[in-house]
Design a protein that fits this description.
mainly alpha; Vanadium-containing Chloroperoxidase, domain 1; 73% helix
Length: 243
């Protein structure tokens, strides 16, 4: 299965040289920036987008929308982690060497990569998180998907992956998120609803004031009403004393 890459006439290899050639033409400082961004920066950016999405959704929308969004936000990193685990046997089965091991003249920005190339872990992880955020909120999802696409580009730019490694990672991350989403949401939504009703951790799903309102809303739906001023036993006692 290592024969996925052929000679320079293969479009996969040709595109690799074309994109990686940009690194050769770029100044050294720009390559250092791309090295950091491609290895760590984009992942950090996706985490920040996810947190921004969570913070925004917990303060807006109805209680039901907030619960669903919180479940989707929790599902995003879980799905990405599952996709990475699924990729472990895929890599072992395909056994595709890194491009710099089979092709000369590449500008390799990240050294020390000794594992197999297909599928790209970075691309899988990035797209898994991005699609998970998209499930929660389309606006933030489009931003996250844009970052994930750039993550894939950066892996080719740095000379550590073939284009098909990246495409495979995108496909794997997306498939895991979407195919398992119905089951995941069926399990996580009731959990997030229970969290929202909690006076201690309800803030995770909704802002403090919204969490209290949601708890009252759920209690009212079950016929449980909070004591009102003038209706408690203590108030009756006070009225008797006053009389």
């Amino acid at each position: 299965m290592a024969g996925l890459e052929l000679d320079g006439s293969n479009p996969d290899v040709s595109l690799l040289y074309d994109i990686n050639g940009l690194a050769k033409a770029a100044p050294t400082w720009f390559d250092r920036v791309m090295e950091f961004v491609g290895e760590y920066g984009i992942m950090l950016g996706l985490v920040l987008v996810g947190l921004w999405c969570w913070w925004s959704m917990r303060k807006r929308g109805t209680a039901e929308d907030s619960v669903t969004a919180a479940a989707a936000i929790v599902w995003a990193p879980l799905a990405a982690a599952i996709a990475i685990l699924i990729n472990i046997p895929i890599r072992g089965f395909v056994e595709r060497p890194r491009p710099f091991n089979d092709h000369e003249g590449l500008e390799v920005l990240i050294h020390g990569k000794t594992d197999f190339s297909f599928v790209s872990d970075h691309s899988t992880l990035a797209m898994g998180i991005a699609v998970g955020i998209f499930v929660a909120n389309r606006k933030f999802g489009f931003v996250a998907i844009g970052l994930a696409l750039f993550a894939g580009f950066s892996r080719i730019y740095m000379g550590v992956h073939y284009p098909t490694d990246v495409i495979g990672g995108f496909a794997l991350g997306t498939a895991v998120v979407l195919l398992l989403a119905p089951l995941a949401m069926a399990l996580l939504t009731p959990l997030m609803a229970a969290v929202a009703r909690s006076p201690r951790v309800g803030w995770f799903v909704r802002s403090k004031s919204a969490a209290v309102a949601y708890a009252d809303e759920q209690g009212g739906a079950r016929g449980i009403h909070e004591p009102r001023p003038g209706h408690g036993r203590g108030d009756l006692g006070e009225k008797d004393l006053a009389a």
